[in-house]
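User: I'm curious whether this sequence folds into something compact or stays loose and floppy. Could you predict its structure so I can see for myself?
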Amino acid sequence: MNKRTILGVPAGGCIGVVSVLMLGIVIGSFYDFQINEALANVTGLGTFFANYAFIPAYCLYPAGGALLYAGLKKKGDRFRFLARVLLILGWFMAVYYSNSYFGSKVRALFGYVPGESSPLLSVASWLFWAVIYSWVPFVVVRLADDADPDKLIAVGAAILVAGFAGDCLNQWLKQVSSRPRYKYLITLDDPQSEFRNWWQMVPNLAGNNDSYKSWPSGNMTMATMMFSLPMLTGALKNSSARKNRIAFGFACVYVLLFMYNRIHMTNHFLTDTCWGTLITYLTFALISSAFCRTAEKR
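Assistant: Here's the prediction. I'll summarize afterward.
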């Protein structure tokens, strides 16, 4: 991968993303509450988007595992078992995160009621996620350009490691901040009385109370994974700078829609979404650069 690229696109793309997010943080630092008052409005379409639009981003986990599989397989027979394990790991990470963060919605669709319904319904809802992501490894392995196995290994490892690191960092920061969500504030007689700006942190106040886990946005951490899509397209056959730019443009639109949805659905403030995106984006940029530059030097 060209050293002048970050996450598969020229460095200017990275600078543009960071600049827009910093601008959003500055604006939100002054007008967070007012922006939510103007935009917040729970709708059926918004609920559907919030419940299922994350799937394309989580497809990157099995895609990363598939790249590792394709790259390691080219290294020889002694890497085949490791390749298979990492392939399954990438698929499992997508299933695990989907079921952990969004599984209650699917279990409800299957009619599962804890303590009342058959456990088989819960198993069926888990299998729903397993099937959703099962096609990804087959497609990516078939399309992967194995002429440069080191590149496939570097990109695949970067996606899996950065995705895991971003999620862990987000969960820790939610406890550090313990910022009240807008949807909780509007249940109060005086919402402004408990409103806090993102920098007014009260560490470990949140605990297990989701009402105090507004900053940073976890959904944005997940959605920001899409910025690694140009790395994926760059590791496939017939790759080109044009395809990477298209993938980058798609990721930008995807992330912006997610940012609007989180505000629209009363879950987050503008600064929550911008910080969640920025922190994850920089995490992905740092980890992917480390892996890909190491591969180049081999």
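Summary: The chain is about 70% helix and 0% strand. The first strand starts at residue 5 and ends at 6.
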